[in-house]
Request: fold
Amino acid sequence: MEYAPLTFAPILKPKVWGGRRLEKWGKQLPTGVDIGESWELADLPVEIEGGCSIVDAGVAAGTPLRRLIEQDPDGILGRLSASCRDGFPLLLKFLDARESLSVQVHPDVLYAQAHPGAHLKTESWLVLEAEPGALIYKGVQEGVTREVFASAIEQGSVIEHLVEVPVKAGDVHDLPSGTCHALGGGVLVAEIQTPSDTTFRVYDWERTDRELHIEQALDCIRFSPPDPQPEPAVIESSGIRTSLLSKTPYYAVERIDSLETRTLPLATDDAPEVLMMINGEATLGATLLPLGRTVLLPAKLAHQELQLGAGSSFLRITVDHGP
Reply:
């Protein structure tokens, strides 16, 4: 069987905190609607609305990713296993935060094992745009206990107990499950995560129309400051700069920058890879990859060559194993 790169129709998610900046990233936004998320590659269960990506080009156009995996798991996943919910072991998004997101936390392994319906979520953010003075909130401050934090929730002073981190374009932040966090207003990120949409909110900036999940969140939060973010490891060779941005137990993220016009050979090594264009454009065979485009390389894809213009950049995401 001959395999081809797979691209998908973005799944656009209206959010109260969203904006319109994703239009610059190639997304056709509905008129008059603030869009917070564009799910680029998703394979969550069918009971979650808009949870599975649909191929938008080529012979497989119109086919859900879940069906492709069911029909040919070896061809798509190779030596990898599906996620714990039988789907693709990554969820990839662009997030546009016109306003700050809720302060939230995601379950870790132990919580997910003890609570059916909850699923581990570790994620990483690459900051693509940030307004002057933009922040994220990442972890609780030194000395903050469950009791102190519970009292802060009641008093509406949660933000005073979080670690504020100034951000700029190019920054990367890992958010292991259990990290209490929030994306601040004026920030646009690429998000790489394990395939879960389980979110427990503890504070929503005085918004009153969304549910909070106080007890669940308190059971999940890691009450210690965040680990230092490692500096990216950078290798430059033959006009290509490769930066290892993130290495978690579940996935790795590299940033590839083309310093000149280059042809880059791609080999999948019997495991799928995902590319996300974050600057300029590229061509992969007959597939054009403009800014904001995401492409899945099936595990059994034959040797491919990626044509990159000078100044083009993309993320290369590989899976270690599914959660």
